[in-house]
């Protein structure tokens, strides 16, 4: 499901889709915290869909490099929140964390169903078709990637809520998670690709989107 950038316009649409996906992802974190009573994100101007508020300069550069090379990652600014302000003390941070991947899954599903509905009527070079394909690929990948339970990814906060903050595994992953994540991306590419492939396939089956494979393969 690697995007085809033979035409420059495909790259532009892919990058715009990536910005949108990250924008909504980070906004969803801030919104989930706000709905639990935390005003931190709102006070810092992050309770908005304005992508400028959520994009990290270095992460954006890496985003472009990753799109051009087909390897690497990009990222947005971490969503700020105070866990002590959250209504649900133990599960509050996990709810904030999972809001990001859920937003990506929702965007993937909407784009996927639209692709199934109108895709057969559109030529392969249609801009809307390219946008929908990009949204499916990006959002499914972002959701599954961020659920990896390695700090600082969203999955680590979910694992922390499940096992408790003093659990040995949780403590180790918080301490060494960043280095483990770098190793997974730059050394364990095969493992990461397999994980993403299985996770995305499960998502497509869960939402009845297996019919979109011909579009993504093209």
What's the SSE blueprint?
Layout: H1 8-35, H2 40-43, H3 57-69, H4 92-118, H5 127-146, H6 154-163, H7 168-186, H8 189-206, H9 213-217
Structural features, described:
- This protein has 218 residues and is mainly α.
- It has one domain.
- The chain is 66% helix and 0% strand.
- The chain contains 9 helices and no strands.
- It has helices at 8-35, 40-43, 57-69, 92-118, 127-146, 154-163, 168-186, 189-206, 213-217.
- It is globular, with a radius of gyration of 18 Å.
- It starts with 7 loop residues before the first helix and ends with a helix.
- The mean pLDDT is 89.
Number of DSSP helical runs: 9
Task: Please tell me what the overall shape is.
Answer: globular
The structural class is mainly alpha
Mean pLDDT: 89
| Element-by-element helix/strand order | HHHHHHHHH
Q: How many domains, in number, for the residues? A: 1
Task: Summarize the structure in short.
Helix content is 66%, strand content 0%. By secondary structure, it is mainly α.
């Amino acid at each position: 499901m690697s995007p085809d950038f033979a035409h420059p316009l495909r790259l532009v649409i892919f990058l715009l889709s990536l910005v949108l996906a990250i924008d909504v992802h980070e906004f969803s974190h801030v919104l989930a915290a706000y709905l639990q009573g935390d005003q931190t994100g709102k006070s810092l101007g992050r309770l908005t869909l304005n992508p400028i508020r959520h994009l990290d300069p270095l992460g954006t550069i890496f985003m472009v490099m990753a799109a051009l090379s087909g390897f690497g990652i990009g990222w947005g600014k971490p969503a700020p929140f105070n866990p002590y302000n959250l209504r649900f003390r133990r599960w509050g941070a996990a709810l904030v964390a999972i809001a990001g991947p859920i937003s990506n899954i929702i965007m993937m599903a909407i784009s996927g169903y639209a692709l199934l509905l109108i895709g057969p009527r559109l030529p392969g070079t249609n801009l809307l078709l390219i946008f929908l394909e990009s949204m499916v690929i990006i959002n499914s990948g972002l959701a599954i990637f961020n659920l990896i339970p390695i700090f600082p990814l969203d999955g680590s906060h979910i694992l922390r809520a499940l096992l408790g903050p003093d659990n040995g595994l949780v403590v180790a992953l918080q301490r060494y998670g960043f280095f483990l994540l770098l190793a997974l991306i730059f050394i364990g590419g095969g493992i990461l690709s397999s994980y993403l492939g299985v996770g995305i396939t499960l998502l497509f089956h869960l939402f009845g989107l297996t019919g979109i494979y011909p579009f993504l393969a093209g």
